[in-house]
Specification:
Chain A: InterPro entries: YycI-like. The complex is a heterodimer. By secondary structure, chain A is an alpha+beta fold. Helices cover about 30% and strands about 35% of the residues of chain A. Chain A is built from six helices and 16 strands. In chain B, helix 5 runs antiparallel to helix 8. Classes of the chains: A alpha+beta, B alpha+beta.
Chain lengths: ~280, ~450
């Protein structure tokens, strides 16, 4: 009988040991996947703050550093090529403004503006190098009277006011004028490099306190933005864009995260002058 | 207790006589199984290390993961007539593409190939129709699993610095090679796809090279002169404050002693931690006499190294593991440009971590790092072919069998006109007596 009792005591002790070891082991496994758990818990926390978003992808992307220039000579050519427009060129901002003559204006279906504009922009007599631009639904939704086309560069699009065409719509729904900026001869500065994933970018943006409570994330996009100006060249970097709208406000805000380093991109790019 | 026991016995009778010993055996077996699982799970070692680093480290927001640091840096293609070419392309990242192509494969089983002589090693290395992925120095099998998304069970003994993928029609095996002791492992592979062949075809630039065994060292020889680009980068200077917050327990607000001279600024926290900043060169020397030492094998050391890099807070963009010393207690990391390492960012590389005496951590790194590449119009530079370089060394009185390694690297030079810009110039670097120096430095001495 005594032996039986010892067996019982042993049984109970070993059950306790098993529970303890089991917990230890489970925690070990948990630690192994700490990275994903980390992101997931941040995403949960965001939902707790009434931030709504589509499930972000955790796949890493790839991109380049790209250098480009404003070309004044380029824009002065534009004036000769275009027909039925009167153009002005602002040297400081590198912006060409083209006013369409009355008979060149056309009405636009604002639900699907790209159907008409895609044809218009491709004609060299309408927009200079227009075939380098594509329609951006996200940016076009930012303001009601503008349709935005963005410039395509190697392996991506430029979401920056230095490579865009903005079509202005008058009160009758006609396209009356446009402004154009152009990045000429974009060059790759460094080999293709991995970027951070959408999930990382989104959770970091939240951790930097850049997403207020009660916000809807309308869209996410990986595109190029201006990082710095060096002499007369501009360096562009792959960037995660997030279109945010606070729920009691109509306005859409765009937040940007550098997709190589994960830092916030400032509104005014850094300027560097090198004496060569 | 006694009453309850007898109650059970009454209830179940003979059955309980077996029940009790059986369940006892069962729980003992379970506890043994858990013990084994815990002991073999490396996460438990990492956990203790990580606690140590997170206590000092700030944010764990890193854009880079461990497999980015311990990644191959070169891809060499050996064609059907045994010509070897270093593959490079600015538009596609060849290393990443090849890794992505291999990730869906299934690594089945690993076995060591017995009786590998130096000659046989050379033959395996130079097999026809293969792809060689080179790591700057040996890494552990677990990193192989992480990099290629595999779950192969590999002994912690296994170390390798090359992966060889035979590109024959079967694609059913790969080899792991270790230059340090000439061991070769064979891994059988299932489900390989031929996408890897298309990746290789896409690559634009192929520099002719030869992997040769030379006095027990494997050297990558460039038989022809090479033209390489120069690069310019915007320089980033991290503040002293940042490193103090990252590396001291209480940040810079706690009980910290400061000593400042013309050359250096020293901060001490208690008797355990000390940071010395070189005011002129921006070189930082950090010592912690209260560190943890649990590096039982290379894999743990590599993990600890990565965690320490995160804790220090230097940018890990393009940072790669470069080499360890013979006793595996000192690790050097370097910044890479287009597949070539950068030298003299500090005397030792971008970051050097040492764990020489148990419980001490010693890190040397720089406040300066590369930030953003800048456009430049500097001409390309011509580098001599390897045989010419070796001949120059010999005529300067340096015997060739003293050469441990030779590599093309980029020399870090601050722009003379502005300290915001770093120029990177390609030059030959030679390793003799465990010391890396520019070719011309060795020639002057010789």
């Amino acid at each position: 009988m005594d032996f039986k009792r010892i067996q019982w005591i042993f049984l109970l002790i070993f059950v306790a040991i098993d529970v303890f070891l089991g917990l230890q082991w489970y925690q070990g496994i948990q630690f192994n996947t700490v990275d994903t758990v980390g992101s997931t818990s941040v995403l949960k926390e965001m939902q707790g703050d009434d931030i709504s978003f589509k499930k972000p992808s955790n796949k890493v992307g790839e991109g380049f550093y790209i250098a480009g220039q404003y070309s004044q000579a380029f824009m002065s050519q534009a004036g000769i090529m275009l027909k039925g427009t009167s153009t002005t060129y602002d040297n400081d901002t590198g912006t060409l403004t083209a006013e369409l003559s009355i008979n060149k204006r056309f009405k636009l279906n604002l639900d699907n503006p790209q159907r008409t504009l895609d044809h218009f922009i491709r004609e060299p007599e309408n927009v200079f190098h227009g075939q380098d631009y594509v329609y951006s639904e996200e940016l076009s939704r930012m303001t009601r009277h503008q349709i935005v086309y963005v410039q395509v560069v190697p392996s991506g699009k430029i979401y920056d006011n230095s490579g865009e065409v903005h079509f202005n719509i008058d009160s009758d729904g006609y396209v009356s004028s446009y402004t154009q900026t152009y990045v000429s001869s974009p060059k790759i500065l460094r080999e293709k490099t991995p970027t951070i994933s959408e999930e990382k970018a989104l959770t970091w943006l939240y951790q930097y306190n850049q997403i207020p409570n009660n916000t809807t994330i309308l869209w996410t996009k990986l595109a190029y933005t201006k990082l710095l100006d060096v002499n007369d060249t501009t360096v562009y970097v792959p960037t995660w864009f997030f279109g945010l709208r606070t729920n009691n406000n109509e306005e859409i805000h765009v937040k940007r995260i550098n997709a190589f380093t994960g830092t916030i991109i400032k509104d005014t790019p850094q300027k560097v002058n090198i004496n060569k | 207790m006694h009453n309850r026991d007898s109650h059970f016995v009454k209830k179940f009778g003979v059955f309980s006589q077996y029940m009790l010993p059986t369940s006892l055996v069962l729980v003992i077996a379970i506890s043994l199984a858990f013990t084994w699982l815990i002991w073999t799970n490396p996460a438990h070692f990492n956990k203790s290390m990580n606690e140590n680093t997170t206590a000092t480290g700030p944010t764990q927001l890193s854009a880079r993961v461990i497999t980015d640091i311990y990644a191959p840096t070169q891809i060499i293609y050996t064609d059907a007539s045994q010509n070897q070419k270093l593959l490079f392309d600015q538009k596609i990242n060849v290393v990443n593409e090849v890794i992505k192509d291999i990730q869906p494969w299934h690594f089945n089983k690993i076995k060591q190939i017995e009786n590998v002589t130096t000659k046989k090693y050379g033959q395996i290395l130079n097999q026809k129709n293969t792809l060689i992925m080179n790591y700057p120095d040996s890494i552990s099998g677990e990193i192989l699993n992480d990099t290629f998304n595999q779950r192969l069970s590999i002994s912690s003994k296994v170390q390798f610095n090359r992966v060889i993928v035979p590109l024959n029609s079967k694609l059913d095996k790969i080899y792991l090679l270790n230059d340090n002791d000439f061991t070769v492992y064979e891994i059988s592979v299932k489900g390989a796809s031929t996408r890897i062949l298309h990746t290789i075809e896409q690559v634009k630039t192929a520099i002719p090279v030869v992997e040769i065994l030379y006095h027990k060292h494997v050297l990558l020889i460039y038989p022809e002169d090479i033209m390489l680009k120069q690069y310019s980068y915007l320089q980033n200077r991290q503040s002293q404050h940042l490193f103090l917050t990252n590396l001291f327990n209480n940040g810079s607000n706690g009980d910290v002693k400061t000593r400042k001279t013309v050359e250096t600024t020293t901060y001490e926290e208690g008797n355990d931690r000390r940071i010395v900043f070189d005011n002129k060169t921006g070189i930082v020397d950090y010592q912690n006499f209260n560190g943890s030492k649990s590096n039982v094998n290379l894999n743990n050391s590599l993990h600890q190294g990565f965690n320490d890099l995160l804790a220090i807070g230097v940018p890990l963009d393009n940072m790669r593991y470069f080499e360890t010393n013979g006793t595996e207690n000192s690790f050097v990391y370097r910044t890479y440009v287009e597949g070539f390492p950068i030298f003299n960012q500090t005397r030792y590389g971008a970051v050097k971590l040492s764990y020489e005496t148990p419980g001490t951590e010693h890190a040397t790194f720089s406040q300066y790092s590369l930030q953003v590449p800048l456009p430049n119009n500097q001409p390309m530079i011509k580098l001599d072919a390897s045989p010419t370089v070796l001949r120059q060394l010999v005529s300067a009185g340096i015997s060739v069998n003293k050469v441990q390694d030779m590599q093309i690297g980029y020399e870090w030079q601050t722009d003379p006109s502005t300290d915001m810009v770093v120029n990177l110039r390609p030059v030959w670097y030679i390793e003799i007596d465990n010391k890396w120096q520019r070719l011309e430095q060795w020639l002057q001495k010789g």
